[in-house]
């Protein structure tokens, strides 16, 4: 009989009616302190503001309080329990999602901290090793050492060549069994390519070592 705004109501109009008739009507049915809930819902849902997840959790909590308060008067032909169940489901889902995101962020932060600590530990070890390397280089080398070193290089190269040839033969045999027409024996040229690759690798390692020494 007494209407501030006539139906059909939008959410904004409904909340305006609540506030207009709160003291004279609704405050006699539910606790008057719930007016703050009405104002909270109106502020976030009827002003065109974007609602983030934290605000959504608060709005769902306030909605549950309001629906629960009105349930003491009536179930409104079953509409109110259904609405309360849907709001509760949304609140639970959103709370679980936010908790999962917080856990994920915490795990990522921990992982990043571990990576930083690991990198620092490696750097400290490399810094500790660098003076030793420099001290070795600064020592005077006896002429006979060069001869022994050259023989050692030849020995190492011979071993590498044997390993490479063996790997090459095995790979050729495997691929020939898989597809006999697709494989040609190119052991010599492939070995030369490997030699060039090792030279490039050696240059790169030397560059890294010089950078660390600086």
Automatic annotation (TrEMBL):
One of its GO terms (cellular component) is nucleus. This is SWT1 protein. The lineage of its organism: Eukaryota, Metazoa, Chordata, Craniata, Vertebrata.
């Amino acid at each position: 009989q007494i209407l501030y705004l006539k139906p059909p109501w939008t959410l904004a109009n409904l909340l305006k009616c609540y506030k207009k008739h709160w003291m004279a009507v609704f405050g006699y049915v539910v606790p008057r302190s719930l007016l703050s809930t009405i104002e909270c819902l109106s502020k976030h849902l009827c002003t065109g503001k974007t609602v983030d997840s934290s605000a959504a959790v608060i709005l769902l909590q306030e909605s549950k309080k309001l629906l629960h308060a009105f349930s003491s008067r009536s179930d409104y032909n079953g509409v109110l329990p259904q609405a309360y169940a849907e709001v509760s489901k949304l609140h639970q889902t959103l709370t679980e999602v936010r908790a999962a995101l917080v856990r994920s962020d915490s795990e990522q932060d921990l992982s990043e901290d571990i990576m930083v600590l690991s990198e620092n530990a490696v750097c400290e070890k490399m810094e500790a090793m660098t003076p030793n390397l420099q001290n070795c280089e600064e020592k005077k080398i006896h002429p006979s050492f060069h001869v022994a070193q050259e023989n050692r290089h030849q020995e190492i190269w011979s071993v590498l060549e044997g390993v490479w040839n063996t790997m090459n033969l095995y790979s050729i045999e495997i691929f020939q069994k898989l597809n006999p027409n697709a494989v040609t024996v190119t052991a010599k040229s492939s070995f030369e390519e490997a030699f060039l690759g090792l030279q490039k690798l050696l240059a790169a390692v030397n560059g890294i070592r010089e950078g660390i020494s600086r």
